[in-house]
Amino acid sequence: MRIWFFDFDGTLSPIVADRGAAELHPACAGMLKDLSRSPADCVAIISSRDFEDILPRVPLDDVIIGGNSGMEWRLPGGCRLSLGADKGDILQARREELLPLIEELGQLPGIEIEDKKWSIAIHVIKTDAGVMDNVAGTISAWALRENIAVHRGPDVFEIQLLPGFNKSVGASFLAGKLAVDSQHDSIIYAGDDENDAIAMWWALMTGGRAIVIGSRVDVPGAMYVKDQQALAEMVQQLRGNS
Ligand SMILES: [Mg+2]
Question: Is 0.85 topped by the overall pTM?
Answer without folding.
Answer: yes
